[in-house]
Amino acid sequence: MDYLLLLSSIVLGAITVFGFRLYEARHIRLLNAFTGAFLLSLTFLHLLPELYHDHPAHEGAVAHSVLLIGFLMLLGFFVQVALDVISMGVEHGHSHVVTQRMPIGIVMGLCLHALVEALALGKGHAGVVQGLDPHTRRLLLTSIIVHNYPVSIALLGMLLQSGMPRGRALGILVLFAAMAPLGMFVGSHTALAAYGKEMMALVIGIFMHISTTILFESSDLHRFNLAKLGAMVLGTAAGIACVFVH
User: Fold this and answer.
1) Within 10 A of 238 (CB to CB), how many other CB atoms are there?
2) Average pLDDT of 131-141?
3) CB-side exposure of 80: number of CA atoms within 13 Å?
4) Distance CA 30, CA 33 (A)
5) Label partner for 211 (CA 20 to 30 A): which of 32, 62, 75, 88?
6) Is the CB of residue 166 less than 8 Å from the CB of residue 27?
């Protein structure tokens, strides 16, 4: 079921593009404002506190663990900085004109981003993420689904507007759609399954970069847009609701 849920946001993104033509930059900016606020709310209210749960700082071994978690969050932040260079920022709403048959850099960056994000969804042999409660995993799953919806719209809309044939554009979207389920599978069936908390720290660093980049990028006129503010308020409210609804 989780694999289907991960695919559902990509399918919905394709329906949004083909059925409603909502892939203009102004629509994507509003969707991203919502998702950026949503990600940041979930991160600050649950995902981040959960990483440090039951970690009293006075114990030497635990203090080392806390330092490792902080280092991995920092690493995740700069991993996303590097991925942004490859993907040209499509994962937080930037759209570009594609002048080549296959935008290899953009596709590679987005695929790596989706793969790494989903590694923290991997379950161990007991059917749970090592070191994290089930609610935390559900919130992470929800975050990835919500985040991938506008990304799929931006990617598919960009490819179609650049004159790429529909079949080829859909093929690229299918490749992107496969990355999150693949990441969850790898996180469940490899040695990474024993490091759920560490993978979560890496993903939180990625979320922090994406959400802050979305929320603090200026508009074209360098003025704060009222519609964007409304989308952020709705995203924050949705994030708060998800945290408190078990």
Assistant:
1) 18
2) 85
3) 23
4) 5
5) 62
6) no
